[in-house]
Amino acid sequence: MNYLEKLLSIVVPCYNSQDYIDRCVESLLPGNDRVEILLIDDGSTDRTAEIIDKYERTYPKQIKAVHQENGGHGQAVNTGMYLAKGKYVKVVDSDDWLDLNSYQKVLNFLESLEESNKEIDMLICNYIYDKVELGHKKVIKYRWLPKNKSFPIFLYSNDEVYEMVARRKPVLARICVTFLISSDPGFFPKK
Fold it and tell me: For labelling alongside 1, which of 7, 13, 118, 191 has CA 20 to 30 A away?
């Protein structure tokens, strides 16, 4: 491997996630040694800390459990970005999970880039917005983007990116090169 330590770091901000963190983490584990999973407990008051500590003990080469005082989702993301050792980074909320086939396709694609000495700054993927408890599922497709092509992007300021994230714009489905984000430890504002 030619990456920092892992191909992909996945940051999982967790706050009172005991009821659904297992599904999230179990969906991330098939990344094996290509993936680092950073479980950031943001001051939970339920059993979240205990659950993520068990995952770290069970998968010490793949999972790191981090505990901090409650600082909000943005602070938990900042902590994960700061600690990320992968070439690429993705944030997955603790109530979300990844489809195995799609996950493997993304990992294989990122690995093929590495093997061919190619780099990207961002990878945008379609996804499913699934509210299981409400029986609501919506497929989000980026039809307006070119398929399987590289194209230049405009660089946004941190404030502009935060506004896109806060408004639930497509930024949420992106995997970015770690150093582009983690070079600014205050990328996402605290609560």
Answer: 13
Query: Any idea which residue has 């950031």 for tokens?
Result: 40
CA dihedral 71, 76, 82, 84 (to 10 degrees): 160
Between strands 6-14 and 86-91, the pairing is parallel
Q: Write down the H helix ranges in 33-191.
A: 48-58, 73-83, 100-115, 158-166, 178-182
Tokens 């996945």, located at residue: 10
Under 8 Å between Cβ of 77 and 13: yes
pLDDT single digits (tens) 90-107: 999 998 888 888 899 889
Beta strand pairing call for 86-91 and 174-177: antiparallel
Contacts 24+ apart (CB under 8 A), 97-100: 97/23, 97/24, 97/26, 97/27, 97/28, 98/27, 98/28, 99/27, 99/128, 100/27, 100/30
Q: Give the C-alpha separation, 45 to 56, whole Å.
A: 19
